[in-house]
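Technical note accompanying the year-one report. For the benefit of new consortium partners, we illustrate the data format agreed upon in the data management plan: each record pairs a sequence with a structure-token string. No post-processing was applied to the example shown here.
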Amino acid sequence: ENYHKAGKADKVRKDILYVGRLEKRKGTRYLIEAFAFLHETMPHVRLTIAGDGPDCPKLEQYAAELQVDSYITFLGFIDDTTKQKLLREAALFVSPALYGESFGIVLIEAMASGTPVIGGYNPGYAFVLQGRGAFGLVDPEESELFASRMEIFLTDTKFRKLWQEWALNEVKKYS
């Protein structure tokens, strides 16, 4: 089933994807914390974390401390083909980078695949997520707000469709 075009929220698959390096500036710890809040109201949601880095063991431990480790899959490093497949299959792509992003190419890749995006509010991501897309910007350190933004993207099909239409038009600016 192509769940990006599903007409009802219950048919929309509830998988969240992160792809990137596992280091402090990428904000993955805040994603796990927000996911724990989201899990309280949406226990069927799953999070896939693809990437490697120095914080991987700490992040796995943090997920266990928050008791959401059985709902999170850590894939480690993935190749580009796998990344593209995961982007197409995810219900939501999240990249909560705190700083150090000069441009949001990973956001554009997700948008081009039809997957809604939430990014950390940093200059590189704010450049990409303008207009209607700005709803996808969050302060990753505001975990409950971050979680509620994920919930909106996962459950509000009208909003999701409007955002996807914006994104598919927006990515035409980039080659």
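Partners are asked to follow this layout when depositing records. The chain has seven helices and six strands.
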